[in-house]
Amino acid sequence: MVTRRLLAHSDSPAFRFVLIMGLVNLFGDMTYEGGAAINGQFLAQLGATAAAVSIIAGGAEFLGYALRSVAGYVADRIHRYWAVAFVGYILNLFAVPAMALAGTWQIAAAFIVAERIGRAIRKPPEEAMLSYSTKTLGRGWVYALNTGLDETGATLGPLVAAIVLFFKGSYHMAYALLLISSVLALASLTAARINFPVPARLEEGRVARATGFTRPYWLFVAAGTLFACGLMSYELVSFHLARTQLVSATSIPVLLAITTGIGVIANLILGRSFDRFGIVVVLVAVTLSAFFTPLAFSGSLIAFLAAMPLWAIGYATQDTLLKAIIAGLLPEGRRSLAFGLFYTGYGVGWLVGSTVTGLLYEHSRTALMAFAVVMQLASLPLFLIAARSARKSRS
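Above: the chain's sequence. Below: its structure in C-alpha cell form.
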C-alpha cells in the first residue's frame, strides 16, 4: 500500500518537495538524535544529577517549543520563511558537534539548549511550507512521510554514536563525527530552497479555511499540552538505563536506534490511518503511548523491550498526528504562528512533565509512572471534544 501511494505521487511537485525536505530532516535528525542518544550519560559522566538531567532536557524542550510562537510570528510578518528556516537550521545542526568542546556539564547543557532554540526557530516556517502540499497528498501522509525520513536519520544517528563507543571512542569523538550529517542537512536545505523558492505555489485548492484561531484549535492545544506532560524524554530514559545498569553503555544508543526504526513504520501507518479514520487513530495512539512509562521504569529488561514500540507510537503521535490535526485548522496568513502557538503549549506541558518526573525519579518511581499515565490519558477527552467541535464548525 505504501509503495503504491509513493508511485501514485512520484511525479507531483508537492511529493518532490516533501521528499527533499524529508532528506533535510533525515540528516538533521541523524545529527541531533545521535547527540540525544548519548546526552544523558554524557551529562552524568560530567557530574550532573538525575534532576539536573531531566530539568535540562525539559527546560531545553520548553524553550524549543515556547519560542516557536515567536519564530512563527516573525516568519508570517516578514514573509521570509526560508530565511528564518536557515537561521534555525544552522543553530540546530551545529550546536550538536559543538558538544565535543564541552568540558563541564554546564557547558554541555548550554549547547543542548542552543540546539533546541535552533529547532524552535526553524520548525514553524518548515511546517507551514509543508502544509501547502497537504491538499495533494493528504495531511496525515505528508507529515508521516516527512517524519518517516526524519526517523530514518534518527535511527542512523544513535548507531553512529554506538559504533564510536563500541570501539572505545569517547563521547567527544561521537559528537564531532556528527558534523558530517550537519553539513549534509544544510546542503539538502539549500537544494530545497533553490528548487522550491515559493512553496505556496504547490497548493492545489484551499486547505486552510479558518479566518482565526478557533475553539477546536485551542482545545487541541490543551490536549497536546496534557499529552506532552506524560511523554518521556530519552535523556531521562537513557539516564535510567545507565543508573540501573539494565543494559551496557554501548547498548543505550542502539536501543534508541531500534526504537526510532520502529517509529518509521509507526509514523507511516498512523499517518495513512489518520487520513482514512480521523481522530480515532489519535485516541488509540495516545492510549498505547500512556503505558510506555510503567513498562520502561519497572526495572525489567523484558518489560523495557516490550515498551519500545509504545515509545515509538508516542513520538509518532507527536511528530505526525498532532501536526496533521493542526494542519487542518490553519488560519490563512498565520500558518507559521498557528504551529508556533501550538508548540508553545506543547512545550509548557513538556517542561512541567520533565520537571515533575525528574524530581519524582529520585523519590518514587511508582509516583513517576502514575503521573505519566494519568497526564496522557487525561488528554483523551479533550481530543474527542475538540474533534467534535471541529466537525460542528465545518457543518
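The chain is about 80% helix and 0% strand.
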